Amino acid sequence: MAPANAPSVANLASTVTNAANQPDLRGNLMPVRSEIDIDDCHVDGTIPTGLRGSFIRNGPNPAFEPLGSYHMFDGDGMLHGITFGDDGVSYRNRWIRSRGLGAELAHGAAVYHGLAEVMSFPDPKLTGDAGPLKNPANTHIIEHAGRRLALWEGGPPTEVDTNLDTLGEYDFGGRLVGAMTAHPRIDPRTGEMCFFSYSLFEPYLRYHVADSTGALVHSVDLDLPAPVMMHDFIITEEHAVFLDSPIVFDLENLGTGPMVNWKPENGTRIGVMPRRGTNADLRWFEIEPGHVQHFWNGWATGNRIEFSGSRLADPNFGIDPTSPLDEQAADNQPGRPARYWVDLGSGSAGWEPSDDLPGDFCRINDAYTGVPNRYAYMSAFGGSVGNQGDFDTMVAYDQSTGERSMWHSGAGGHVGESVFAPDPAGTAENDGWLINAVYYEGGDRTDVCVLDARDVEAGPIARVTMPQRIPFGFHANWFGA
Q1: Where does the chain bind Fe cation (predicted)?
Q2: Would you say residue 117 has pLDDT above 90?
Q3: Is residue 113 part of an annotated ligand binding site?
Q4: Could you give the CA distance from residue 88 to residue 43 in angstroms, rounded to a whole number?
Q5: Binding site annotation covers 475?
Q6: Structural domain span for residue 296
């Protein structure tokens, strides 16, 4: 059941109307107003008989007119669930009913400022037990040990049920101290989930392992020289691998200037440790400055560890209360595919570009997490380089040959993250489908597109027209029936 203070479906509708001075509330960043349930979505094409389960996308959908500058990282989480069944395709969306959202509903207006004004603390009389920082749980959704967890890297996970209803924050039976990354890595062979959290205050990095039953069995503090933004990492069968890149939090600037700054003079390091290791086991390898927001995968062959992701040479995340958000967004250029390597024997490490196509949202067939895999998927800028909402192309890479295949979404099309749904009858790594929520400006609509992962260039084999558009958001996952 939802918490007692959780707003109900009937009395929660977004009041956001004024986007004139809020670049992150324009176009398809504007929230949808309400929660709906539709059992018979229109389908063009044929849904494969093996595609049974739910594609669930998480993203921001602010319920109230924001206080001050709004960044899309601030918005209340909303889950959009598209379920493929024997009787057709259904859609349902639900706000994640955080304690902070409950406090705002009780007040009838926004109570919390956003990241750009993080030092503007809310009135504790209005927040009650929700605390001074809202956990919107707006970034990702995963499943581990029978629990579905909505994630936001600034706080603990929020558990939801299979109907997308909120159950509340989850702290692993009181064992989790601090936050949890939005990008844990689950080993499909052992069932272990490895994850971390970063902090503005020491210890700047914590690392955790939950076993296959969901019990938190390993937690260690790891030393970093400065508080940095670390969004993702990778695992091999034996290692946890971190990228310590110089996206540094400047505490003295909080509320008065850029809260995160790129400081290449600090250097970039790859950190490698055993998956059940401690700070004493952590080895660092210096490389050329750069940042990876999202990785594909990694694996070890002997002493050599290889991994790949979308590398940014000069990142900017647009969180500065002194600068207009649209100007910050214009500077936020995408990454490009790159391969990294570490030789644990010689102590050498490096990277090389693997393609010049700008893009991100790196995904694989998750059954290959931590072991060598051949195929990698990305959302890309097939046209002009722009911001996240301008992704217009789905890309599949064959990493054994270096070849790529692409599908362009067409005029006015904007793709989200491609999620791989495996074919239950398949045997090859790419036996399955790619699912993507594609927004079309012309009709102000979203089509959930299904592509054969073996033939991306052929385009969708099925399009599901959503009963309401799905605003631009972050990450999605497939939950098989």
Answers
A1: 183, 231, 294, 475
A2: no
A3: no
A4: 8
A5: yes
A6: 23-480
